[in-house]
């Protein structure tokens, strides 16, 4: 049974916290941005990702946020930066917003000195991983990786903790596709760990109070469409 209870009537007026769950911008390395030998988790946003992050920051600039949190990975921090600047807030790092831990060596694909072949090889490997998990709906399909149960537990626990810090307020949490899928799957009582194609910089909004939560918005991409920016990963 889910550790979260659905409550469609949660409101900030009665102490619920509004949490914007935001996936990082595009960070699939291209020839222009790839850092050979740098490791996957230190790769910067792609040029497309930089545009997506800025469009998100512009779109949310007039929405008041009380705090901004991010996973420690470079791609999430860089995605959060435009919004943080617009809100005059410091991005606070939370390790449990990180992506699912995969028992796969992605850094070896970045050892080549040829940016073009490096980018191509890493993109192909990441696509292979997503196709495998997408078909099964379970991270357990990748042997030795973090279980869906572990991913759900830490993600739910952290969002619950962040909400408790900000009763009646609005916060942003910049995270990853697997983590956001896992949290929402737990909320909706779904068996699949990965159940929808969450796009880069998409916004999903939940309201949280204790062990209750309400889904307000799922995979919102208005900021990209308004700026005529690519929405497909």
Structure description:
Helix content is 36%, strand content 16%. With 233 residues, the chain is of the alpha/beta class. A 7-stranded mixed β-sheet has the order 1-7-6-2-5-3-4, with helices on both faces. Helix 2 links the parallel strand 3 (67-70) and strand 4 (91-93). The longest helix has 22 residues, at 115-136. The radius of gyration is 17 Å and the shape is globular. The two termini are 32 Å apart. The mean pLDDT is 87.
Distinctive features:
7 strands, seven-stranded mixed beta sheet, alpha/beta, globular, 233 residues
Which strand-content bin applies to the residues?
15-25%
Mean pLDDT reading: 87
Helix content range of the residues, please?
25-40%
Order of helices and strands: EEHEHEHHEHEEH
